[in-house]
Fold each of these.
Amino acid sequence: MPKYQRWFWLAALVAAWLFDFLFWNRTASLSFFIWIVVLLGTGYLLAWREGKKPHWRSILLTFVIAGFALVMALRGETMTRMLSVLLTFAGMLLLTATFLDGFWPWYRVRDYVVEIAKVVGNGFTGAALLATRKRAGSTDEEVRVRSGWSKAWPIVRGILIALPIVAVFAVLLSSADQVFADWLKNLFDLEKIPEYLFRLFYILFFTGVLVGVYLKAIHPAKEAQKPAPNIPWMKPFLGWTESGIVLAAVNLLFIIFVVIQVRYLFGGTDNISETGYTYAEYARKGFGELVAVAVLSLGMYLVLSTITRTSSRFAKIGFSVLSVLLMANVLVILASSLQRLMLYENAYGFSQLRTYSHVFIYWLAALILAVVVLELLRRRGHVAFAMLIAVVGFGASLALLNVDGFIVNRNVQRAVAGEELDVEYLNALSTDAVPQLVASYTDPETPEVVREKIGKALACRVKVTNDPASLPWQEFNLSQSRAYNLLHENQEKWSQYKPFLSMNEWVIVVDGEYTPCSTFVGLD
């Protein structure tokens, strides 16, 4: 039990109120980073107050979490922001589960699931358990602190209980008497009472959840034991013969597929034409299916490696040989997927989804190579940690790459080489794209026909980019601020392109060519 219970309640209440202050009716940006830093800092302060020391790996994990949280204040591209939020919260759960011991690098897949589930469960039950437990053996100082709190705590509880009750009666009495209603309206905005009640409810709910989470991190129910990742968490029940047949059959199918792929991918355009598809159609067809095959193959390996009995030396060698062969085939399939994607990008240019897929394939290939190494070293239990590194690496790669700036750069290069540049798609990109658009427009090496299209896109953005100064400070985003400043500092350079409103939509007409500032695009 914690020495200073009420500090947990107070800290959680402040953090929950701060959530409401930062996010109610506001878009998460800088506010998200601030809130996460406050949550982390509060946890460390409570641990220090309780005399608990976090493990150094927990401190390392804390910096990773803060880094992903910061992405919300730096980037405007949606997928990067969403993935950063998910990784931030996943990291917070993992930090809570291993705050004192730092055992997360040794977790198996099952351990990650179980420990994170325990954190979630403790968030819903920890506060209730703390509120009903009594502590023994308190020091004089603790008794004195608790005595001071004991005088104030009933008052706080009474106020919190009374507020919703009084609010309900006030609404009913206001409906019964207009004079009372007018008097009450001068004091409070009655229309907002339901909103205030709802906000009070979720603040109190979050308070309870955060108390449980902080308790789990600083005062776990029992001391954790270091996991043994190479010891199976369940007793294998499937014989080597059955698993060997499954692996051999899948390998045979993959080998046949690979042989055909080698012919079509490296045999030239004529071979692909035999299928009845154009080069671009062949590139697009089946890409998702091939990536799914790679992911499912990895999942099949994880399941079989867990449930297969390999007690004899022959069984161990046989399973490893077939598993490594499976991973080798999967790498070739991934190479085929990448080749198709590159053909598609060459035909139609880069998009957000294609860029995500491009980066994802490289990290998936790195994960499969890691699985091969771990299988050869008889360290299968560390595959979960390799998966964690791959997921974090994928998220970090998107954040560091600047997806929309990358898309502009590559598509402008294609346009310089004589390909079409889609202005409508450029308009759909986030504010992350603006610095690269301005750089490409002002580059003297950019051909005039390409510069004209970029200029139209920039002129459109001047009209649709909001002034960050008009937004609350909680919504500050560096990408939006930088884009706005660049657009207004350089707008004279593309002043010949003048957007005007037509049917409630900004459009540009140059030499009879109609260019909408619309931002509707497809998903691929």
Note: Strands lie at 500-502, 505-510, 513-516.
Amino acid sequence: MSINVLKRSFGIVGICMIAALFTSPKAEAQTEVMAWSNMTGIRIEGQLIEFESSFRVVESNWTSVFATGRERQGSQYSREGSSQTVKLNAQRISFEQTVTDKNKGIAAVSISYQSDTTRKVEGVYYSFALPVNRYSAATVQIGGTQIPVASLSADSKKASGNKIVIKAPGRNIQIDLTSSVTAFVRKEAGVPTLYIQLLGSNLKKGQKGKLGLTITASGDIDSAPVEVVIDRHNPGRLFAGFGGNFRLQNPTNDPQVIDYCLDNMRVAFGRAEMPWATWQPEENSDPIAIARGGNLNERVDRSMKMAQRLAAKGMPVIISAWFPPRWALMPGQTRGFGGVAGLKLDPAKTEKIYKSLTDYLVYLKQEYGVEAYAFSFNESDIGIDVLHTAQEHADLIKGLGAYLASRGLATKMLLGDNSDATTFDWILPALNDPKTHEYIAAVSFHSWRGCDDETLKKWGGAAKQLNLPLLIGEGSTDASAHRYPQIFIEPTFALYEINLYIRIAAISQPLSILQWQLTSDYSLLWGNGIYGSTGPLRPTQRFWNLKQLASTPPEVFALPFTSSKEDVNCAAYGSAANGSYAVHLVNNGAARKAIIKGLPALSNIKVYVTTDKLNMQEAQSSKTADGSLSVDLPAMAYVTLIGK
């Protein structure tokens, strides 16, 4: 972003603060620290030297192992300059870890810990899991003891020392400790894992300790060009564009973020809330009559106006319900707020439930001019907040779907809207029941915990089986991130997020990915009080990433491609009808060139680059001797080529 753009966007006041944001020490961060404390490696010139640290509490005789990880424990994350600090409590042991980037490839780690319990365990450890693809032929040296990973069948013998050296082809990690430690190596599901002991087997309440270590990483830097070959003659599924969730939760901060996102990003799909509990709090009331009598609940009105605003921009709108009214619940169920409520609807009141939900959608259409594209209960596979079995979900699609049609609505149901891609099997009864199909608008899942390629293929396959679109109803990577919101402005978080979306786009070919959210919740903007931040309202790296993805031309199809590098994620789109093409590239390594083959001759090409320092900055492309296109990929960069 240039100073002139800053002046136009924010005025003179605050420019220094914004400049500081983009030139702060975090921009030079090389150690990837997750908000739950685990390090995933150290970057050198953008190349990640991989490992994963964790705190582990092992029960006696290895009957169970608790390892810190995403959503496994509460934590607090903060950054000050080049230091990242995480505080957490796991298994009644408190930990505090500060990781400070030093010189190239070098990080200093300071750990303190304290037991809040007296009991027997196997031990409390600081661990390093080493990826098999990089470290299967490694040697781990603890003090004077060498341990070849290849010959390790289970546990190595314990050894002591104040230096641990891990050597593997193309990778070296040296850990220098402030005091001598006891350590050993285990193979866990084939993964070599280094255990450094912090506390022994007899825990005492109040027992505490500290450990300091310096990690020095080195390895081969791969800067060879990546070749991407696009097959434009076999287009796949339609991509409508990037979308967003607009569940209103913060009347103070939501409006400014919503306005900014809708004014500065092409949003192609929307999802808004049905505040069902406040729409019809009393079982035998007539909510439409009450609303038309001038007593419409303010929250309901705001949600309907949000849907109206999205529809006025031409986007399809999904309506989803979280909190049910008490009367709709099974006897003894209590409606809660937040978390996994797991609330069961009363089957004896099915018809009343269908009428109440449909009344809302009818009133939305009649009074606000919005006919919802689809309806869903949010994450009913796990119960946030309504809980359905897989068969109940299939029955709901048939029952409510038919009722919506009987009331003259074109609104259909989402198949799934699952909490996670990994719960795919939950949609199978509905997917395999032909009687559900006429009432399904699209297949949907939420991307909170990521997913492997095979799982993503299953979701794409389900949509193809029905010949219906696939939607990512909630796009994001960490459901707990609102608890440690400073992570939202970290380059690592931004890179992981756009990586996931480009993988999903390429493998599953969704019609849209709907960001959670384009409000102040999990905000793409910072400042002006959002999560307590100061300074003017301003876009983060995440905003620029998603604006860049949202810049994909409308009405284009996913295109097959091959890529010569695993650490460059790609997605390609194009249309022979309108002549528009887009290629998205996420470079997870060192700076390199990308050679793009298979595109038609394009006369108008724009290249955009987003990194921790560049905000959708325009760059240049060039033609190679054979007519292919060449673009520069900076280290840890998201690069998009758009042409016509």
Note: Confidence is low (pLDDT under 50) at residues 1-28.
Amino acid sequence: MEEGTKNQGIFKAATWIAVIILFSKVIGFLRDVVIANYYGTGIVSDAYFYAYQIPALLIVILGGVGGPFHSATVAIFSKLIPDYTSKPTDYVKKLFNTFETVTFAIFALLAILCFIFPDKIMNFVISSGSDELVQIASTHLKIMSPLVLLGAMMGIYYGILVTYKHYLLPNISPSFVSIGIIAILIIFKNDTNGIHLALGTLIGGIIQFIVQTPAVRKLGYGFTFTLSKLKDANFKEITELLLPAFLSSTIGQFGLYIDMFFSSGLEEGAWTSLGYANRIFQFPTGLLLTAILVPLFPLFSKLVGEKKYTETAEYFTKGVGSLFFIACYFIATISIVRFDAIAIALERGAFTHESTIQVANILLVITFSLLPYVFRDSATRLLYAFNDSKIPFITALLAIFLKIFFNSILVKEYGIYGISMSTVIITLINAIILGSFIKSKMEYKFMPMFKDLAKMILIGIASTIIGFYFHEFICKFIEGNILHTTLRVVITTSVVGVIYMSLSQLFKIEYASIAIEKIKGRFIK
């Protein structure tokens, strides 16, 4: 495949995935609007978000797009399937079914444990919380416990679909959880304990799993219980990649449980506010990472398998550079319009102006982790392509101890904001460690990438300063209702975008030229 054709194919895939994810994120945004309207930032929303972190470990973090099950499936099966138009061989099907069978057995057991012992689990996770908080959270976890099994199975399905370059379902199906929540809450409005919120999450997750099945079966991968390839070399390779990655992601999730522990003793609604800020942060971050890294990860795996390390380094640089370029713009705009944006999105019903202020301030702190965040996840994908998940695991293990250390210092002084501060520090440390190990896998020069990044940061700072004063200026003339606030956000983000692109062109940032050419091409067409 020629270089230009390959670049064009990746760009088209990234664009298509970005559109799909944007739709899914919009549905997720509507879900948050509905939840905030009914529950605000109080004990019921705290209980739900505490309880949801258990099934979320599987359905979002481990089993989601980019999670260990997805990554292990792509890394191994992309090397075993040379022809994506034909049905899989009998060997590949049996290997896939063995992977499914082992996964089903392990996570069915974990789901049963969550159903039987939800009170003990939630007591352990939020030991500093009130009895009422623990009781409500335990009920929510019991309802949502089947998602623990479904999440892991979906990760395998996502992986095989992405391997065959089927990007639609893996990226759009997570919106079914949001749709389930919205539908149930609208139908059953009177819900003082959040039971319908947990039930809507379960129904959405079941639908999310069901819609994957026909597409996977159409590719030739049915679900048959078998352990015939348990001792196979490729299955061993799956476990060697999956287990450390699983432990790495699980340990990473332990960082969230540590945050839950420290926040449970803070004021009511603090955990919910942190959750909203995180989800707003994940809107651009998830869009960026998934759109660019999902099509690149199978390419990384294939190029590494063919020992084409020069091309691997080139695509890694382009991918990370693109992420940095867009991330600097997002940081600028979020810093300026966060209060207006959150007020437009969430400030109604039980979600008060005080809630807006707290979420906006937490979001500002978290936003500074965006650059190391996108680099960390990019470096992790590249290490996975080398079948190395041990380094991410050790790095995540170190992060746990750092999380306890920084939380114990910062939460005492800054409350819920201290948790956000520790997240930024640890994300930066993780990015540095993972990046340092890339050079042990292949020859790679970081200096050109970081020189561009330094220019992007300076341009981003200049754009933020100019944009801030511009926003302050138009606030004098455009104020009042939600339409006026929305207009301020649209105008400000547009002006900051023009300033950012103009300065990037002036300082010869290649990603700006590429973006402008693509935009011109669209309008000319």
Note: Residues 97 and 224 are 6 Å apart (CA to CA).
